[in-house]
UniProtKB/TrEMBL annotation:
It comes from the Bacteria. Pfam families: DUF2442. It comes from Segatella sinensis. Gene3D superfamilies: NE0471-like N-terminal domain. This is DUF2442 domain-containing protein.
Length: 84
């Protein structure tokens, strides 16, 4: 089944541990994401500091960190592993 994820957004987030979160998407699926491999380049490197990584918030469509870093919801959807 093909899922149209062009307009998908994040509707809830559960911090698990380290750099791992469960993200619930607007299509009802929850995906587990390890953010550590995604923290490369410019301001993203700052988020390797755990005290800074946990300073995130849920906007109306995705996660955003204190320093303005965010990721497109469809990118995170593709990166995550489906949680049963």
């Amino acid at each position: 089944m093909m899922v149209d994820i062009d307009l998908i957004r994040i509707v809830d987030v559960d911090y698990i541990k380290d750099y791992t979160m469960d993200l619930k998407f607007s299509n009802g699926e929850t995906r587990r994401i390890d953010f550590l491999p995604l923290l490369k380049g410019n301001k993203r490197e700052e988020l390797k500091d755990m005290n800074k990584f946990i300073q995130f918030g849920l906007t109306h469509w995705t996660l955003e960190w204190y320093n303005g870093i965010d990721f497109a919801p469809d990118f995170l959807y593709k990166q995550g592993e489906k949680v049963a």
